[in-house]
Design brief:
Elements lengths: L1 E5 L4 H12 L5 E4 L7 H14 L3 E3 L6 H8 L9 H16 L4 E4 L7 H11 L5 E4 L1 H4 L4 H11 L24 H10 L1 H14 L14 H16 L17
Parallel strand pairs: 1-2, 1-4, 2-3, 4-5
Length: about 250
C-alpha cells in the first residue's frame, strides 16, 4: 500500500505530512506546480521536506494558469476552476492511478469538513483509492497547524500568510472582491495580468457583473476592511466564494 500526501505547500498539508511520517508510513509528498505560485512557497516546501527528511515528488502540467486559459479559450473564475481541475486534480489522479492501491492524505482542517465531503465523493468512483483527512480526524484547526509549523518546527510560514488566508497561486481566480483589492495592493503585477486577461477574453473574472477595473474602488474598500479586522483579530468572511480544492 502506497501512502501519498497532497503536498500543496501550505501549513495544513505540512502538518499532514508530519503526521503520516511520524506514523512510519514513508509518505510520498506529491506536489503539482501551477507555475503561478509565489516564490516563497517553494522555499517553504523545501524547508518542510528537509525537516521531514522526505523528497518532494513533482508532477506538473507545465503550463501556468494564463497559458491554460488561453488554450481553453476562456478565463477561469470561481465557478469555472479549470486551473484546479486540470493543473492539480487531474495530475494528482493521473499519478495516483499508477500506484493503486494507495491512501491519499489531504490537509483539510476541522473547519473544512464540507471540502472533505466533496473530495471524498470525487474519489469514491475510483477503486483502490482510500482518502483520509487526518486533521479532521484529530480535530486539528488551521491555527494549530500554523502554530506547529512556526513555533514548534521553527519554520517560517509562506509570506502569503501575512496577507491572505492560504498559500495559493497569485492570483487565485476564486477570490472575492476583497481578495482582489489585496492583490491590487500587494501583487500589482498579478492584478494587471488579470485585468488584461479580462479584456483579452471579453468577460470578467468575477462570477457576477463588473470587471476588475470597474470594481477597483469597491475592491480596495473591502480589502481595507479585511485588513482592519485582521489587525484586530476579528472574525471575518472568507476571501473566497468557493473554497479552493487545489490540493486534490
Amino acid at each position: 500500500m502506497r501512502h501519498i500526501v497532497a503536498f500543496s505547500g501550505g501549513a495544513a498539508s505540512a502538518v499532514v505530512a508530519k503526521i503520516a511520517s511520524d506514523a512510519g508510513l514513508a509518505p510520498t509528498l506529491l506536489f503539482h506546480d501551477t507555475m503561478t505560485e509565489p516564490e516563497d512557497n517553494g522555499r517553504f516546501r523545501e524547508e518542510v521536506a528537509n525537516y521531514l527528511g522526505l523528497p518532494i515528488t513533482c508532477k506538473s502540467d507545465g503550463r501556468n494558469i494564463w497559458e491554460l486559459f488561453k488554450d481553453e479559450g476562456m478565463l477561469g473564475n470561481g465557478r469555472n476552476t479549470m486551473c484546479s481541475r486540470i493543473l492539480k486534480q487531474e495530475k494528482s489522479l493521473e499519478y495516483c492511478k499508477k500506484n493503486i492501491p494507495y491512501t491519499l492524505y489531504i490537509g483539510f482542517t476541522v473547519e473544512e469538513w464540507q471540502r472533505a465531503q466533496r473530495t471524498s465523493a470525487r474519489y469514491a468512483k475510483h477503486e483502490g483509492i482510500t482518502v483520509k483527512f487526518p486533521l479532521i480526524e484529530q480535530r486539528i484547526t488551521k491555527e494549530e497547524c500554523l502554530h506547529r509549523v512556526q513555533n514548534c518546527w521553527k519554520i517560517r510560514l509562506p509570506g502569503s500568510y501575512d496577507v491572505f488566508e492560504h498559500a495559493n497561486c497569485i492570483p487565485c481566480i476564486k477570490g472575492k472582491k476583497a481578495y482582489w483589492g489585496l492583490i491590487y495592493k500587494y501583487e500589482r503585477a498579478a492584478w494587471d495580468k488579470a485585468s488584461s486577461a479580462e479584456k483579452e477574453f471579453g468577460h470578467t473574472i468575477f462570477t457576477e457583473a463588473g470587471s476588475l477595473e470597474d470594481e477597483l474602488t469597491n475592491c480596495l474598500r473591502l480589502a481595507d476592511n479585511y485588513l482592519k479586522k485582521k489587525a484586530a483579530n476579528e472574525k471575518q468572511e472568507s476571501l473566497f466564494d468557493f473554497p479552493c480544492e487545489c490540493s486534490t
